[in-house]
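Chapter summary example: a protein plus zinc ion.
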Amino acid sequence: MKKRFEKRGDGLVRELENFLVALVNVRWEKGDSRAEDDAEEVLRMYKNYFPLEFVAVSDEHLAKRAREEQVVEKRYGVIASQITRQDIRSETLQKVWILTKRLRRVWNEQNPRSRDWFIFKVRDFYHGGGVDAPQLNLFEQAMEQLQKHAARARICLNRDCPAPYYLSPDFRLRTFCSPICAGPAKREAKRTWWSHHRSAAAKRNKRPRQK
Ligand SMILES: [Zn+2]
């Protein structure tokens, strides 16, 4: 019997999964010029998944950071630097990249227990390592969705895939995120098959005919 997912057509579930896939596909690697754009895009498209504490560019936050700097100056005699919105924005982007990095471990892991642990590490980082159980915001709902469906996490085999981390629609073994990605591989397989069979046929034809 085919396994079916409860609430498969549920709009929220779909959105939660879209968020997970968008976050895990952020190109955070050093030197990748698209890293900032990707992170900004996730922050913009999934605004509701990131509370003020996460993106924190409010005046209140700036004042808090300035106070923290003063404490550092007092304690260590280091000159406190002026904190700008730009600084805080780049801190936020750094945080997105760390989330992505940790989330990719979930996709790269086969062991369910390790996967659970990596999901926990993503959540822990997101919440700043507090001890209290967090509120069930959209981010937490997405993580719970992932916890239930982590076995569907796959990496597309097409090396040119622009978003190789994906969630398979079911537990069957799939190796490409989409028919578009599977297309070149199928064509390649066909070409290999043909060239193999052509050369075999050529060899056959070379053989002197028996009368
Ligand atoms: Zn793909």
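Key point: The chain has one domain: 11-177.
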